[in-house]
TrEMBL record:
KW Zinc-finger (keyword) present: no
Gene behind the chain: rph
Protein name: Ribonuclease PH
Organism for this UniProt entry: Iodidimonas gelatinilytica
Subunit architecture: Homohexameric ring arranged as a trimer of dimers.
Gene3D superfamilies given in the database record: GHMP Kinase, N-terminal domain (3.30.230.70)
Amino acid sequence: MRPSGRAPDEMRSLSLLRGFSKHAEGSCLVKFGDTHVLCTASLETRAPHWLRDTGKGWVTAEYGMLPRSTHSRMDREAARGKQSGRTQEIQRLIGRSLRAIMELEGLGERQIRIDCDVLQADGGTRTAAISGGFVALVDCLRYMRDAGLIETLPIREPVAAVSCGLYKGNPVLDLDYDEDSAAETDANFVLTASGGIVEIQGTAEEAPFSEEQFLRLMRLARIGCDRIISEQKRVLGLK
């Protein structure tokens, strides 16, 4: 039995609320159960300097956790004077995941910055950020289209992410904190609507896991990402 009472292939409640932020070109408040992340997409008129005169744009991401997003208060990283290795790794993952489904030439020499701020954490903050970040990105691109900056949305297909793991020897989908902190293996899967693999992060916390166990986790991840993508399409009105 999982601590939450969920079935092995059952996700937490999922919510994607578009337009949460008044000022951002695109925004989404994403909730995976008790994990809540605010994703905003901001349009910048210049691409990074290394893309100058290439005609290509860029999508990048920043990630952070509010001081009381967890059980006890943490210091803001700005107060410490530097980002942790974990923060840098997560925001690079978010950026890679969103760039993977973009036609960057279609942006022109512009940049979209996805800010992912964790309001409340209960496991799976990076997967929620990727899934909500996609919604914010699409709405930013729609803003650009409506403003006449681009003609079509330069997106190949939706992308989503979900965590899976081995909890008490059993493969389970969408780990919350209680499971993640006790899992023998945990993994994050970033998958596209067509089933393409963008990235997989998997770690054995105790004994190594087998290929068969990995394939069972992969099957669960497909179930989870299919559900998330279905909800992304519904809230965005995509076919």
